[in-house]
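RECORD TYPE: protein structure
NAME: Stage 0 sporulation protein A homolog
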Amino acid sequence: MRKATILIVDDERAILSALQRALRGREFTVVTAEDGQAALEIFAREPVDLIVSDMRMPKGNGCELLRIVKKQYPATLRVIMSGYFEDEEVVKALHDGTCEAFLQKPWERTSLLNSLRQLVGKSRNALTGCRDT
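PREDICTED:
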């Protein structure tokens, strides 16, 4: 079975680097993008199992990107990451299914890994179940 591909989208290079370090050597293939357009270009080139997007970016917010991903790539899990959980749009995105989960900035490494493993595991179990029926 191939490693799950996780796409991380954040306009801050330091955040992208920190997340890559946190996930390095794990069961994931990690790719990064600095904005929504670059993320969609990655989707056009390769399969992505899970996308983790920052909420507040200069070239559009994470919820807007995740809405596009949900429509064009519905099998991809969608996660929003932000330091602002109280953001009304984040809460709405969680309730309307735009994203499956919220990750808090700053993150704790073990909790981040466990959350991503759970999400990828649920997705793979659902796909396996669909194929068996």
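COMMENT: The chain is about 50% helix and 20% strand.
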